[in-house]
Amino acid sequence: MRRRLQQGVAWARDYAWITAAQLAATVRPPRPDSLATGERVPVLLLPGIYETWPVMGGLARALHAAGHPVHTVPALGLNRRGLEESARSAAERLTELDLRDVVLVAHSKGGLIGKLLLADPVVGPRVAGLVAVSTPFAGSVYARWFPVRSVRALAPHDPHVVALAREVASHARIWSLYARFDPHVPGGSELPGAVNVLLPLDGHFRLLDDPRLHAAVLDAVAHLASDGRERPAL
Predict the structure, then answer these.
(1) What's the pTM value of the predicted model, to 2 decimals?
(2) Could you tell me which SUPFAM superfamilies the record lists for this protein (predicted)?
(3) Which of 108, 193, 202, 231 is most deeply buried (CB count within 10 A of its CB)?
(4) Residue 146: count of CB within 10 angstroms of its CB
């Protein structure tokens, strides 16, 4: 009973946080190129559905402070389009910026987009790996009840989600980070064959602003960047 109460409080705080973050992103949007400098491995942000990249702003600033140039995909907008169309936009951005050995840092649906990029024969070799936060790799059972098609497309039995789940070759280049309680992905984000990191946090959105998540992402990026150096250059 006590744990259920804690989860209820975590759920409420999660919604309060994302509401405030979305409002701040609308009222005071940062420049998309403000974090694009640095000497370490580049990072490309892939936000979740109905999210713009500033929702990941705290994490982006932590990456930039550690020396990583952080890039965005303006064409994603609110990330309402299908997975394949969104992946094409991200692939075009990778090519436009001529990014190599880039690490994708994604939240929620963004992790599914990132997985598609890893499997892409053209841009996949440019990508060192994917750090996915709170990603519904097997879909979310709640998505099927949502009245909007773009969200229902993230249900476990959606053909795109099923097909992507069958693609396992890229799992060795993925770090999946997730909370012990995620109100939007009740089945969890554990991905067989990937590096799975369970964090002592609750929520789907709010952990994006937690220093413990930031530290875990930085660690994942460092490991993926190191592994990427072993691959031959394009």
Answers:
(1) 0.92
(2) alpha/beta-Hydrolases
(3) 108
(4) 14
- At 10-19, the pLDDT tens digits run 778 998 999 9
Angstrom CA distances, 29 to 34, 44, 75, 214, stand at: 11, 18, 15, 21
* Structure tokens, 8: 């209820």
How would DSSP label each residue in 13-43?
Answer: HHHHHHHHHHHHHHHSPPPTTTT---SS--E
Instruction: Report the amino acid identity of residue 103.
Output: V
| CB-CB contact of 205 with 14 (8 Å) | yes
User: Would you tell me how many other CB atoms lie within 10 Å of the CB of residue 201?
Assistant: 19
Q: For residues 37 and 210, what is the distance between their CA atoms, to the nearest angstrom?
A: 23
| 206 pLDDT higher than 80 | yes
Q: Is 179 helix (H, G, I), strand (E, B) or coil?
A: strand
DSSP state of 147: S
Q: Are 136 and 153 in contact (CB under 8 A)?
A: no
Structure tokens of 158? 């959606």
Please give the distance of CA 35 from its chain centroid, rounded to a whole number: 18
Q: How many CB atoms lie within 10 A of CB 29?
A: 12
> Measured between alpha carbons, how far is 78 from 76 in angstroms, rounded to an integer?
6
